Amino acid sequence: MRTDTGKVFHLEDYKPTDFLIPETHLDFTLDPERTIVKSKLIVERRAGVGADAPLILDGDGLKLVDIRIDGAPLGDNAYMASPERLEIRGLPENGRFTLEITTEINPTLNRQLTGLYRSSGVYCTQCEAEGFRRITYFLDRPDLLSVYTVRIEAARSEAPVLLSNGNPKDKGALTDGRHFAVWHDPHPKPAYLFALVAGDLGVITDSFTTASGRHVDLGIYVEHGKEARALYAMDALKRSMKWDEEAFGREYDLDIFNVVAVSDFNMGAMENKGLNVFNDKYVLADPETATDADYAGIEAVIAHEYFHNWTGNRITCRDWFQLCLKEGLTVYRDHEFSADMRSRPVKRIAEVKALKAHQFPEDAGPLAHPVRPRQFREINNFYTSTVYEKGSEVVRMIRTILGPDLFRKGMDLYFERHDGDAATIEDFIKVFEDASGEDLSQFGLWYDQAGTPNLAVTYDYDQATKTFEIEIEQSLKPTPGQASKKPMHIPIKFGLLGAKGRELKPRSAKGGLVDGDVIHLRKRKERFTLSGIAERPVPSLLRGFSAPVTMTSELTRTDLIFLARNDGDEVNRWQALTELLNSKLTSNAKRIRGGKPATIESSSIKLLGEIAANVALDEAFRALCLSVPSESDIARELGANIDPDAILASRDALIKTVAEANEEKFTQIYEQLADDGPFQPDAASAGRRALRNVLLDYLSVAEADPKRAVAQFNGADNMSDRAAALHVLVQRFSGSDATSQALKAFEDRFGNDALVMDKWFIVQAMQPGVGALQRVERLMKHKLFSLDNPNRARALIGAFSSGNQTGFNRADGNGYVFFAETILTIEKKNPQLAARLLTAMRSWRSFEPVRREHAREALANIAKVGGLSADVRDIVERTLA
Ligand SMILES: [Zn+2]
């Protein structure tokens, strides 16, 4: 474990390395406890670097066995080796030499799951961000590119499959039942993209022919017996490869592409060149075990990692401050892919929901940081929603500002100019400036200023001159380390709706820049005057959620209802409805906390009934509209003095009123959707299931009877319907026989499949109320549960702390006490996972005073522990700051 040293890394301290390593030859002799790694590096001193400059290599917990230069062993005083560092002095005059290093590592003891470790008997690696230095001493940084040749040797009985990056070059039998394989990757890459997998695995194979005719062998490796569950991932992979050729002109560049699913994995998946390693959650699916959300997740993550081959691997990051260069861009690419595969507006709404649920609270709390941070203590803590999701929004805004053609021209230039580079955000912005002739320097602030801008909008219509004025003022609150902010360039897509919902097109615009349907806000406060508007319009701003901002406007309830019914932009239609519901849900939460009953207007009730029955809208969209904002959505809207019990009561009151008023209509739609033929995982079928399942919740509440959910649970032919019914039973009928029987039936059926049982842990961890804590403690003793496995820990501890507002944020603070203890237990083995889970407490200051004090105390109890990992120390101190 890397203990915190207090060292902070700064972007402005970047310096290129003194040495290059054009070639890296690795030789692994695999053994569960004593793996020998022989590394042979061709090293070159960079021109202009003094002959006395030492070579300093990174390590992490390493044991040096042997070291040689140009074949000769080094004397003791020629080098200094510690587990964290290897420094060599007195290097050959000519500055080019071969350095051979032998280290010994123990993959079985490695529970941090970075470097080389064993998961269910399979050797696998995870090197991003700084895991390669846990395998061998190296210049472990993204700007050091090297061509890798890897030889792997293992007992054939233990590891019949031997995989690494690139193309296979050689393989064969050795004595004593051992065998070997040699892989060569011709593309220079940074160490974080190195991968090795060895074990006894099943495989499905297929092939793909690229646009220029290159034949590529495809393989997906999984646990034996689970091969059929990888077929959907294979299908998604082939669609991704084709899409990247069509949408971005990018072809695959090796003869082979492999994916391996492992069950112990800290992240979602990893884009190692030619050998992607996946959390099995993002590979395995069949109707029996996977929900529609799982299918969509697999499609998105398979695409994401594949797309990294160009945005991340061929063009990598100069340093970790530029992480968003590969992540934000690749998330944008996978979002576009999913939008093309599925319904574009539905996909966009899902993205907006996720951004608001995860990134907005990050921006509003103590962990706020720019899309490109300028300093960090532990890079593992910057794999955040800001870097990924907001990073993607920034790329989307470039496209909105330039339009699709210039955006594509800029992307083409990026690939042409920077192929083989370790690039920066400045390089990325420059290609779009060069492709378009636009000055994007003000836009660049999106990478450097943290926080979510707010737009305050006012309108004025002048009947006499037929002009409509929009005045917008942007503001951005201070965030840690950034007291004052500059105005940003914010692209605001808009439309104006006339009385019957007809689009009114302005004849011309004065004041700030309006280009087609985009308002370009560039000053702190700016006025846009649109002429030729025949009637007073209802404005629809921020269409398609064209910028990651919040907005306060003068729109009335009547305007919002009008937009929810008529806006041609489905994202804004959903947004208008959400705003209506949010204002009711927040005001009721305050009323309930003040001892008053909730009130619900008939207009909202009617509107929801109308949307449910509107067959002109697709089912997935209707399902999204009918999904009442979550408890954490309501908490975010309230912003301060949060009482989770009042929020839950407010939400339940709305659902109950809507359900009772629309019971007949909802029953009819639910029953019409019941007969959908055999299971299909496509987006349209998934949409029908989503609508039916959201109606199941309303109906169960209206009927105050579990029988409908029980019938759906027992009759389901797929996991989406089964899991949705179980969710309704647990949430609405806790403690009932029906619920206990369903939980038992689920366990009987899937009790041998840990991945599926995660759903069972999650649903129980999220059951609201004070009983949750005891239940979670009991479930931790379940035979399938282990804090060592990140998926299990996330299913129970993660779902409880970030998904159960009332059960976790208890007024007596016991949820926090338990959580702090559990974090410290997890940290001892897997600090990265512990730190990630701990971010669930980032919004602690927004609670009402009693809970706030309990939360502060729990955080302080973590902070006072000596010898904390860098990961947890960094998060806890920033959270408390
Ligand atoms: Zn990624």
Structure commentary:
This protein is of the alpha+beta class. The chain is 41% helix and 21% strand. It is built from 27 helices and 33 strands. The strands form 8 sheets. It has an 8-stranded mixed sheet with strand order 6-5-9-3-2-12-15-14, with no helix packed on it. Strands 17-18-19-21-20 form a 5-stranded mixed sheet, covered by helices on one side. Helix 16 runs parallel beside helix 18 and helix 17 packs antiparallel against helix 18. The longest helix is centred in the middle third of the chain and has 24 residues. It is globular and about 85 Å long. The chain starts with 8 loop residues before the first strand and ends with a helix. Bound molecules: zinc ion. The site of zinc ion has 5 residues, from helix 3.
**Biggest sheet character:** 8 strands, mixed
The Cα radius of gyration reads: 28 Å
Please report the number of helical segments: 27
Number of strands: 33
Provide the fold topology.
Layout: E1 9-10, E2 19-29, E3 35-45, E4 55-58, E5 64-69, E6 72-73, E7 79-82, E8 85-88, E9 96-105, E10 115-119, E11 122-126, E12 146-155, E13 161-164, E14 167-173, E15 178-189, E16 196-199, E17 202-209, E18 215-222, H1 231-248, E19 256-262, E20 269-270, E21 275-279, H2 292-307, E22 316-317, H3 323-341, H4 344-364, E23 375-376, H5 385-402, H6 404-418, E24 422-423, H7 425-436, H8 445-448, E25 454-462, E26 467-475, E27 490-497, E28 508-511, E29 514-515, E30 518-521, E31 525-531, E32 538-541, E33 550-553, H9 557-566, H10 570-593, H11 602-613, H12 619-626, H13 631-638, H14 644-661, H15 663-674, H16 683-703, H17 707-715, H18 719-732, H19 737-750, H20 754-765, H21 772-779, H22 790-803, H23 805-808, H24 814-829, H25 831-838, H26 849-863, H27 870-880
Parallel strand pairs: 2-12, 18-19, 19-21, 22-24, 25-33
Antiparallel strand pairs: 1-23, 2-3, 3-9, 4-8, 5-6, 5-9, 7-8, 10-11, 11-16, 12-15, 13-16, 14-15, 17-18, 20-21, 25-26, 26-31, 27-30, 27-32, 28-31, 29-30
The structure holds zinc ion (ZN).
